[in-house]
Amino acid sequence: MEQSSKWMILIASTWIQAFTGTNFDFSSYSSDLKSVLGISQVQLNYLSMASDFGKAFGWCSGVSLMYFPLWVVLLIAAFMGLVGYGLQWLVIQRIIFLPYFLVFLLCVLAGCSICWFNTVCYVLCIKHFSANRPIALSLSISFNGASAALYNLIANAINSKDDTLYLLLNGLVPLVTSIAVLPILWQSRSQTLRADSVHREYLNFRCLTILAVFTGLYLLILNSVSYSAQTARIILAGAVFLLVLPVIAPGVICTEEWSELFHPNYISLEDNDTDDLEMLNELIWKEASSMNVWTENSDGSKEKGSWTSSFLLRDRLLLLGEEHSASLLMCRLDFWLYYLAYFCGGTLVLVYSNNLGQISESLGYRSEISFFVALYSACSFFGRLLSAAPDFLRNKMNYARTAWLAFALIPTPLAFFLLVLSGSKAALSAATALVGLSSGFVFSAAVSITSELFGPNSAGVNHNILITNIPLGSLLYGLLAAIVYEANLGKPDQVLVLDGSKVCMGRNCYIQTFMWWGCISLLGVASSFLLFLRTKAAYDSQERNRNWMRLI
What we know:
This protein has 26 helices and four strands. It has about 550 residues and is an all-alpha fold.
């Protein structure tokens, strides 16, 4: 009943995420798109940026949810993707001809559809799992990292030699998935969580996370081996079975609910602890009001602290979960530190993933592009799952979620500097795995951080404001890579003509780019560390209040 339908909504969210991560496979068909359109590397970069530019309009999905039900927003996203990717497939098949500018707009539309899908999933998790919101978000978002591996399996099961097939799948698969989950979304409504259900919900999440890890290992290991179309179909069937397997959970929960009808020993949050909650709110506000950026002397006068302490304390967040309107959000220093950390971390890795096909080709691994894309996707999947670690380990080691964000960004500069030192397949594999883990953690944790720092009810709009840095970063970082790439095309010993298109070969095609990207990612680490120092007190206050609630 109520609890079982809630778990079906979570499962529907994981299915949407698993089959709508269409931005991961751009590297798989980018070379073919470049050849068909007869464009330069800089122009190809603009198409990659266009997909990310569509995310600048992602806030529209949050606004649309104020006027339309979730299932309507989901179908709008599906049809945007169908038009955006479907027409590109017709172009790459030479069935129709469109000028470069219209292809650019199709990429924008396709990128926008991804944001709309994500917003639907974020709202579903935030709305139905208030007690374990971060775990629900990380579990759902993690399956987005499995998209490239799943699409790779589907493409190989149909025709492994046709890379343009990815565009057709990008348009059709999300539409089919959206139609399949519509009956579940029609019954979507928020429910009050019973006090005795919190622990059981937590245990269910642990079981689902273990199953998700097994699914990720299954996709990672079996995608790394060569196989025929028949073998791909068998592996794909196994993957689909693992995605459907969590449906068992609602059945178990439903059985438990029937047993509770005969043993009603639970306590409702609505019927108890009202006085305790009022006391807790009063305690929080008293503690928050005691925090300020000035220190008082014994005679009552106020003295300004050092420049460092002034920066760390000025206008910092005092409470977690306080709702922020868009205008208030833009005035927060904490938001801009968060924005910079994301801009120099997660967004930078997205540009790396978009250029992964060209990077692999330049280093001499053209035949291994699908492997590197699947590796990035699988590691991104595990990174997203790891973002739930702060919640699973809270009783053993409690750190602010912003601290975990800072730690998660550290592998990114290490990966880029590794590529500066070596262009071997092992180095490229290790670097791709590192940035996949790092970006996966950041993308998943960012939704929870946005919800905690700036309010859960505003998360749909505020998180889409945050990711407006993606098109900006895609333009700047991608343009940097394209300029370095084009500069090396002027050297005859580094040019190879493939399918009528000039290809830069050798480490020099990207080595300067990797150096710049490594330095920029260090700035992201520094910004995230400052964000942690400014928000640490708010997280500590939340943890003290949570411990206090356990005692009353």
